[in-house]
Amino acid sequence: MNRKIKKQHTHELVSEEIIKYIADKGLEEGEKLPSVDELVSLFGVGRSSLREALRYLEAVEIVKVINGKGIYVTDSGSYRYSGKVKIDNEKSFLLDILDVRRALEGKAVELAAKRITDGKIEEMKACLAEYDARKQEGLDTSAIDYEFHQHIYDAAGNPLLHSVYDSISELVKKFFSGPFGVKELFDNTYPFHRTLFEGIESHDWKHALNEFNKMMDIIEETIREY
After folding, report:
1. Residue 95 belongs to what domain range?
2. Given a cut of 70, is residue 183 above it in pLDDT?
């Protein structure tokens, strides 16, 4: 069975290019980036994709957009622009997002265990099978890991909950794109994907939620100790 991993959206790629531009140019706090028109030309993208990328970068406090003045680098956020992460600041950022993730995804896990269909169970089994295969082959599992958690929101069957999650999904992706620059950081959560799914499959929401919380506890502990 062929399965597709979701491709990155244009604004995600633009965000990465802006971060790379800041690093390459050695820009410091308070320094100004090129104008929107110049960035559009530089990256060869549409204004809507660029503005969406800037909104995300503002949300994680990498840049500050001041109307009528321009786009500025800010040092109150998550990154050091030499390409190294400011560990303490990124820890705070990830822990804040983790709190939100616990609340939203915890509810999604509960609902998924109560509402999951036979068809969605088979989709999640296939997802886990690919996860296992990629893990055994030593391949990057970040994308399939992210897809597994997307299945939980789908199985929950609550469009509003899914919509709220989608609104912060770019921030949540920080957990799947190598926090602190280390993609393998959360490998120790791998076994809990299986036990979490078993709870959902058996419609045992208490077991599923318990396994989900174990996963979140490990992530939190790992962040705090890194």
Report:
1. 87-225
2. no
3-state secondary structure the chain: CCCCCCCCCHHHHHHHHHHHHHHHHCCCCCCECCCHHHHHHHHCCCHHHHHHHHHHHHHCCCEEEECCCEEEECCCCCECCCCCECHHHHHHHHHHHHHHHHHHHHHHHHHHHHHCCHHHHHHHHHHHHHHHHHHHCCCCCHHHHHHHHHHHHHHHCCHHHHHHHHHCHHHHHHHCCCHHHCCCCCHHHHHHHHHHHHHHHCCCHHHHHHHHHHHHHHHHHHHHHC
* Residue ending a domain, choose from 42, 73, 104: 73
What pTM was estimated for this model as a whole?
0.62
Tell me the percentage of the chain whose pLDDT exceeds 70: 85
Same domain, 209 and 124: yes
Q: Flag whether pLDDT at 30 surpasses 70.
A: yes
Considering the domain architecture, whether residues 61 and 151 belong to the same structural domain is answered as no
* CATH number of the domain enclosing 163: 1.20.120.530
